[in-house]
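Request:
You are asked to prepare a plain-text protein record giving the amino acid sequence and the backbone structure tokens, at your earliest convenience.
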Amino acid sequence: MTRSPRAALGQTEFIVLMAMLVATVAFSIDAMLPALPEIGQTLSPDAPNQAQLILTSFILGMGLGTFFTGPLSDTFGRKPVMVGGAVVYIAGAGAAYFAQSLEIMLAARLVQGLGAAGPRVVALALVRDLYGGRDMARIMSFVMLIFAVVPALAPTLGYYIILGFGWRSIFLAFILFATLVVLWLGVRQPETLLPQNRRSLRLAPMVLAVREILSNHTTRTSILVQTLTFGMLFIVLSSTQQVFDVTFGQGEHFHLWFGGIAIVASSASLLNARLVGRLGMRAIVKTMFTIQIIVTLAMIVLTAFNGPWLLSFGIYVVWTTSNFFQAGLTIGNLNALAMEPMGHIAGIAASMIAALSTVGAVIIAAPVGLAFDGSPMPMAIGILICAALALWLTTTIKRPGEA
């Protein structure tokens, strides 16, 4: 056991706290989904489809913030950065609550995403401070197991909050959640980065790290594939509520369908843990992209020929589930492949890889989402292109030592 004497919390409380910090991101995205139609009607009645930018603007802010939160936490400590991130997050949620135009709403969500980058990155660093080796792996597996429940529950929770108090109340829920979690962190968890282990904040190491990351073929290619994978995931997140509502008339039950999809897809990480040692990371990634291409082609054909409602809806649910399931079986492996040659700059590299892939994915997902025309066809075409490119790029990834 490599637990630090500064870890005052019991292990169970520590795991739940870390899971709640990481869950801030999923809660901030998935709980918004049921609110998008009403927000579109209120803030953008002439172009209600633009309401989905509320999701991608948050993700963009989170991606931009990820560039800085890791290095800042190495300089000032874990708690100050997470508390500071929570303050920014709460300020963004407050501005979104009062927003009277879509432009103000998008700016507020961007700020909220910047704040969410704190818990997204720094919580993992905090776990690394206290645990190592198998202990860290075990702790993170429990954290992610709890975290996986959030996408299943968040849309339903958001649905009933909106039903009872109106769509603006969802931002008050974000403020309440962030306040409770950061108070819990502040009162119960001591600082884990000791003063002697802190590093000075300098721009030069960050620039050198980005240069090294982009010049390494394996890391660069893995980031490109990870960007396409996140792009597919964000495409689905951006438009799936509209497809359930407009295309299939299931808007009232969307939160239940999405929760069921999230529960099924959450098993992907556990399956990956069982398969990766036997099959290898690249084999799993290539297999998932191949399956994604096949399922997407099937959905495109059914959509193009306007098949029976039940068959079309069924294949859409299967296809949506496959996208989330694919993410669970590919993103972790792609991140490991990208990080493998970067062990000597692991901290900065982790921040840069996450930031580059997230921002790049938003650039892919936003225009595809805005192309929604009442059917899932734009989503499917966008994901087919991403999956085909990702499969081709994956075949070019080489691990260290390979010719």
Q: What stands out?
A: The two ends are 38 Å apart (CA to CA). The CA atoms of residues 237 and 393 lie 24 Å apart. The chain has two domains: 11-190, 202-403. The mean pLDDT is 86.
